[in-house]
């Protein structure tokens, strides 16, 4: 089962930098506009390493990866990045408002090292597939810097919330790091090196399974690098490359928040909203939805508590519906999926509405033909209302027990099935394989 370890990570020196100006969102969530803004914030912003700028004259000897390595070395030598005083776990709280509401939550976790495990060992479980391109990019960065700049977002099960009690005890002290990000999320960290507390956390984590919430590409990159070094003869159970920094969150925490990702479609040839709804009625009961967004969303949530229900807006926003799945046998139309996968709203949406009713193939969806993914409920509705889209599909959030059950049975979920909020910031704590 899962092995977790305290470690002597690297952090930004509070005497040298303002932490708010040097940390970023995870690399795969950074748009071009965000990248430029991070560059302007501070010359020591971690963006210069995790997502460096390419140049026309780049060569094998001078490129984004070699420059990242040189930058890291210079920051360490000048004292911008400094090691923790002792091997530690880092308690990590995130205080935030659920987007679109005034509901405040505090998500509680901790940062430590986790042993890299092949999926076949049934210790670490993925819940989505990965793409080769991002993994090659991250592998090159890891080869050149031999440092991890972000943590994998991991879930574990602790129904009694015993570890949460330990984290609360650590959080009674003055924080070591506190930063508020661009989304208004306050990230507060306490460095814990008390032997008794380290032991308590390790003992409580013994025997637990882990599910990757965010960071599949980075996890598989670390596995590839581990195997690469093993192939070169570096086979030692406690070697630094056999471990990876992770932020661990309890799946039973009431503050664990998953947001839905809505689908907005445009460019559909010969699309007619009445024809679409008539086709959908084969599988769904079609009910008129509230015209106002403020009433539409709670109506969708209420209906989704009893059965799969998908919101639809079309005809310039004049037609808004709730599509409630009929008690039909899905084993024939989804014969390639497990029974648990067939319960997912996002699977029902893609297989029955997008593929069968609209005729958009799975391959076209993979290439994002006609489809755009939107987090904000109002934005998905507005795209149809202003005419930039022909139809929007509004979803309820995936339930955590659905994610857990599908991961544990060895299956995966479609892309954009889960959006864990908020994200774990990059640059808060680094892990060098050379220390």
Strands, count: 21
Low-confidence stretches are: none
Secondary structural class = alpha+beta
**Rg from alpha-carbon coordinates:** 23 Å
Helical segment count: 13
What is the name of the CATH class of the largest domain?
Answer: Alpha Beta
* Structural domains: how many: 2
CATH topology of the largest domain: Conserved hypothetical protein from pyrococcus furiosus pfu- 392566-001, ParB domain
Beta strand %: 15-25%
State the fourth-level CATH superfamily of the largest domain.
Conserved hypothetical protein from pyrococcus furiosus pfu- 392566-001, ParB domain
Explained architecture:
It is a single chain. This protein has about 425 residues and is an alpha+beta fold. The protein folds into two domains: about 5-255 and about 420-430, Alpha-Beta Complex (Conserved hypothetical protein from pyrococcus furiosus pfu- 392566-001, ParB domain), CATH 3.90.1530; about 260-395, no CATH class. It is built from 13 helices and 21 strands. The protein has helices spanning about 30-40, 45-50, 65-75, 130-145, 160-170, 195-205, 215-230, 275-280, 295-305, 345-355, 360-365, 375-385, 400-410; strands spanning about 5, 10, 80-85, 90-95, 105-115, 125, 145-150, 150-155, 175-180, 185-190, 210-215, 245-250, 255-260, 260-265, 285-290, 310-315, 320-325, 370-375, 390-395, 420, 430. The strands form five sheets. Strands 1, 4, 5, 6, 8, 9, 10, 11 and 12 form a nine-stranded mixed β-sheet that branches. Strands 15-17-16-19-14-18 form a six-stranded antiparallel β-sheet, sandwiched between helices. The two termini are about 25 Å apart. The relative contact order is 0.17. The model has no long low-confidence stretch (mean pLDDT about 95).
């Amino acid at each position: 089962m899962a092995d977790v370890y305290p470690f002597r990570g690297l952090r930004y020196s509070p005497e040298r930098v303002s932490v708010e100006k040097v940390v970023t969102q995870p690399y795969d969530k950074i748009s071009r506009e965000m990248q430029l803004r991070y560059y302007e914030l501070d010359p020591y912003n971690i963006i210069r390493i995790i997502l460096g700028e390419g140049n026309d004259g780049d060569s094998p000897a001078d490129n984004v990866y070699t420059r990242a390595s040189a930058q890291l070395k210079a920051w360490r030598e000048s004292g911008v990045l400094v090691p923790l005083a002792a091997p530690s776990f880092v308690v990590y709280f995130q205080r935030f408002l659920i987007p679109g509401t005034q509901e405040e939550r505090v998500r509680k976790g901790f940062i430590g090292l986790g042993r890299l495990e092949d999926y076949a060992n049934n210790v670490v479980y993925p819940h989505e597939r990965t793409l080769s391109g991002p993994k090659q990019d991250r592998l090159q960065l890891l080869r050149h810097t031999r440092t991890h700049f972000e943590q994998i977002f991991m879930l574990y099960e602790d129904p009694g919330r015993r570890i949460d009690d330990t984290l609360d005890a650590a959080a009674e002290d003055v924080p070591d790091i506190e930063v508020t990000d661009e989304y208004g999320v306050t990230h507060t960290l306490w460095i814990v090196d008390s032997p008794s507390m380290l032991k308590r956390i390790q003992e409580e984590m013994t025997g637990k399974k882990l599910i990757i919430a965010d960071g599949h590409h980075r996890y598989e990159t670390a596995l590839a690098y581990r195997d690469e070094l093993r192939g070169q003869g570096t086979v030692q159970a406690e070697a630094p490359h056999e471990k990876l920094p992770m932020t661990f969150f309890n799946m039973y925490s009431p503050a664990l928040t998953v947001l839905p990702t809505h689908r907005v479609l445009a460019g559909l040839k010969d699309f007619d909203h009445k024809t679409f709804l008539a086709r959908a009625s084969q599988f769904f009961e079609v009910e008129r939805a509230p015209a106002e967004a403020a009433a539409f969303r709670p109506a969708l949530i209420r209906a989704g508590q009893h059965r799969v229900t998908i919101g639809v807006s079309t005809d310039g926003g004049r037609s808004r519906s709730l599509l409630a799945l009929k008690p039909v046998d899905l084993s024939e139309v989804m014969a390639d999926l497990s029974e648990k996968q067939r319960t997912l709203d996002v699977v029902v949406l893609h297989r029955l509405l997008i593929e069968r009713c609209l005729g958009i193939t799975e391959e076209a969806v993979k290439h994002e033909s006609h489809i755009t993914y939107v987090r904000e409920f109002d934005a998905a509705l507005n795209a149809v209302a202003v005419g930039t889209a022909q139809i929007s599909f509004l979803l309820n959030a995936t339930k955590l027990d659905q994610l857990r059950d599908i991961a544990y049975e060895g299956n995966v979920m479609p892309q954009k099935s889960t959006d864990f909020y908020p994200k774990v910031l990059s640059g808060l704590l680094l892990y060098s394989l050379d220390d």
